[in-house]
Amino acid sequence: MSEAYRAPGGHDRTGQAEAFDAIGSAYDVAFPHKAGQLAAGRRLAAELPAGSRILDVGCGTGLPTARQFTEAGHTVLGVDLSAGMLELARANVPSPMAEFRRVDLADLRPSGEGPGAVGQFDGIACFFALLMLPRKEIPSALRLLRSLLRPGGLLGMSMVEADLDDAAIPFLGHTIRVSGYLRDELRQVVRDAGFDIAHEESYSYAPARIDAPPEHQLFLHCRRG
Ligand SMILES: C[S@@+](CC[C@H](N)C(=O)[O-])C[C@H]1O[C@@H](n2cnc3c(N)ncnc32)[C@H](O)[C@@H]1O
User: Fold this and answer.
1) Which domains occur in the chain, in start order?
2) d(CA 91, CA 70)
């Protein structure tokens, strides 16, 4: 279990990290059907040249995404707020092509010093991670991700479709705070951050446990504009 985490950027995420430390592998048990995420990861992996460098933002347990990228011959840096999730990711994806680091996504930087200074990437996966931020932080987080992409780089991202801002919800026996948008607004936020949306998929999703509500998942495949 991790100590309380206050990101260098000053965002207090303490409750979020602790919830995911405690949720741990229950996350993959509750969300066993990952067809949308697998397809989005496959698309990203396939469109990038072999040996690309990919950032997995809010990598969770490393499954399926970080493992999928290493198996496709790419190198992956997975970042997450939760020490417990990172421990699972290191065990699930023991490949030398993968590294996992504890960083708040808001503290990622293309250059400089410290754990958040991650350089630039050919591709970024950001599946169900931006929804953990209050809405006021999401546009700047997207612009930040754009700054971490090389020209022409790709972003695969997903959100749950919901008109919510930093709403406390029960999730797998814990309380987490989540935000979301209805799909037109999400597209606008993504475009305003400097991305072209090349492809979009939506999935209706019923988790395997009743304490995680049914949801509509939106997957956007974007190119740095
Ligand atoms: C809903 S899970 C998604 C995990 C994984 N991307 C997947 O789709 O299977 C959200 C993950 O984001 C992490 N997270 C939450 N807030 C974060 C932040 N500010 N920076 C980095 N990771 C964060 C959580 O610890 C958790 O592992």
Assistant:
1) 14-196 (3.40.50.150)
2) 14
- Ligand 1 centroid, distance to 132 Cα (angstroms): 7
Which atom of ligand 1 lies nearest, measured to the CA of 56?
6
Hey, which of 11, 63, 80 would you mutate to test ligand 1's pocket, going by the most ligand atoms within 8 Å of its Cβ? Answer: 80
pTM metric for this prediction: 0.94
Cα separations in angstroms, 220 against 89, 121, 124, 155:
24, 18, 12, 8
DSSP H or E segment with residue 87: helix 83-92
Among 16, 69, 177, the mutation site with the greatest number of ligand 1 atoms within 8 A of its Cβ is: 16
What the block records as the tokens of 13 is: 């995420």
Q: pLDDT in tens for each of the 225 residues of the chain?
A: 344 445 556 677 878 999 999 888 888 888 887 999 999 999 999 999 999 999 999 999 999 999 999 999 999 999 999 999 999 999 999 999 999 999 999 999 999 999 999 999 999 999 999 999 999 999 999 999 999 999 999 999 999 999 999 999 888 888 899 999 999 999 999 999 999 999 999 998 776 665 666 789 999 999 999
> CB of 128 closer than 6 A to ligand 1?
yes
Asked whether 5 lines ligand 1 (CB < 6 A), one says no
Looking at residue 16, the DSSP 8-state letter turns out to be H
